[in-house]
Design goal:
The protein has 347 residues and is an alpha+beta fold. It folds into 3 domains: 6-41 and 274-345, conserved putative lor/sdh protein from methanococcus maripaludis s2 fold (Beta Barrel); 44-55 and 197-269, Efflux pump adaptor protein, beta barrel domain (Elongation Factor Tu (Ef-tu), domain 3, Beta Barrel); 56-194, RNA polymerase II/Efflux pump adaptor protein, barrel-sandwich hybrid domain (OB fold (Dihydrolipoamide Acetyltransferase, E2P), Beta Barrel), CATH 2.40.50.100. It has helices at 6-23, 89-124, 130-162; strands at 29-35, 37-41, 44-53, 56-60, 65-70, 76-77, 82-86, 165-167, 172-177, 184-185, 190-195, 200-207, 219-223, 228-237, 246-252, 263-269, 274-280, 285-287, 290-296, 302-313, 316-321, 328-332, 343-345. The strands form 4 sheets. Strands 1, 2, 17, 18, 19, 20, 21, 22 and 23 form a 9-stranded mixed β-sheet that branches. It has a 6-stranded antiparallel β-barrel with strand order 3-12-15-14-13-16. The chain is elongated and about 130 Å long. 20% of the residues are buried.
């Protein structure tokens, strides 16, 4: 009894199907193809990361005062715009008091200066006591010191009035109000949160064995369940945590694609790059006997080629088998193909 192996049986069945198709005048199968190509790839591991803003500030009160006004959540602000305002009357009165004190000390200095000049002239003619001149000089020095103190106090009063308005430190959006109008604030009470949605980065922590295979400026793949992109390494913190054996990497990302707070997966290389033959993932035909691709030959016939898949890079995957760079492989319409069938390529 003759035993026919499965491979020979499959080949025989393919020829029978082709002959039947030709006999019945069936048109060639319509397929979409792509070329196998050499590509530089490296094995990688996916690590979790989070999209954050490089400028995310919770602004606090610098005074003890009542909150008079606060910007609405979602308000777009420019650097220097007022986002909250404290009651300022008390601090304006303190500024007026400090201004009056400066004027008083200026008048005192002016008087003592003129008195000193007068006593200097009399002293030249021996018409005044030296002790009187010395006392005037000392009084003038004290008055000048008091004047400087008064000016400093006026400066502090002006600063107090200025900081009754809490201003945005950068362009951004108000994302949170942590206090309400009418509440009494203490120094360092957090009032409002402002975030810049245009200056985004991803913070990820990766295994230490990947740190030698990346560098600043390198492009790494970034993805989640909704989108994928490439991100540029901005900085590497090359100090590993001895407990977790992880290090931190930060990457600049496109604000038009990503949003603050999104969770992402970052592909970190685990070895050096090597050049391999790749095809689109859609070219792989996965069956019980293994993986294969259909190559379109020069005579427009399909040929099934067994392959072993390897490294992946986005939509492409490494293949090992009887393929060469430039070979046309079917990426659409391979489900019903068999070796020897005629095909038509759809552009």
């Amino acid at each position: 009894m003759t035993i026919i192996n499965r491979s020979a049986l499959s080949t025989l069945l393919s020829f029978v199907l082709c002959a039947t198709a030709l006999a019945q005048g069936m048109p060639p199968a319509v397929v979409v193809v792509a070329e196998a190509q050499l590509q530089e790839l490296a094995p990688s591991v996916d690590v979790p990361g989070t999209v954050v803003s490089r400028f995310d500030s919770r602004l606090a009160s610098e005074l003890s005062a009542k909150l008079e006004w606060i910007a609405e959540v979602g308000t777009a602000v420019r650097k220097g715009d007022t986002v909250a305002r404290l009651e300022s009357l008390t601090f304006e009165l303190l500024e007026m008091e400090a201004q009056s004190r400066v004027k008083r000390e200026e008048a005192r200095v002016s008087f003592l200066q003129s008195e000193k000049n007068r006593l200097d002239r009399l002293s030249e003619k021996n018409l005044s006591a030296k002790s009187q001149l010395d006392q005037t000089i000392a009084d003038l020095a004290v008055a000048e010191s008091d004047h400087a103190i008064a000016r400093a106090q006026l400066g502090l009063a002006k600063i107090s009035v200025y900081v009754t308005k809490i201003r945005a430190p950068f362009d951004g959006v108000v994302t949170e109000r942590l206090r309400n109008i009418g509440e009494r604030l203490n120094v360092a009470d957090v009032v409002i949160r402002v975030v810049d949605p245009e200056s985004l980065e991803v913070i990820a922590r990766a295994p230490l064995n990947t740190v030698n295979f990346i560098s600043e400026g390198a492009a790494l793949r970034l993805h989640n369940d909704f989108r994928h992109d490439e991100a540029t390494v901005r900085t590497i913190v090359p100090f590993g945590n001895p407990q977790s054996h992880m290090f931190e990497v930060r990457l600049d990302v496109d604000p038009d694609i990503w949003t603050v707070g999104e969770s992402v997966r970052l592909s970190m290389p685990t070895s050096d790059v090597k050049k391999v033959l790749t095809v689109p993932r859609d070219a792989l035909v996965l069956r019980r006997e293994g993986a294969s691709v259909f190559r379109v030959n020069a005579d427009m016939s399909a040929e099934q080629v067994n392959v072993i898949s390897g490294l992946g890079d986005g939509d492409n995957v490494e293949v090992i088998g009887q393929l060469s760079p430039g070979d046309r492989v079917v990426i659409r319409g391979a489900e019903r193909l068999n070796t020897g069938m005629q095909v038509t390529i759809k552009q």
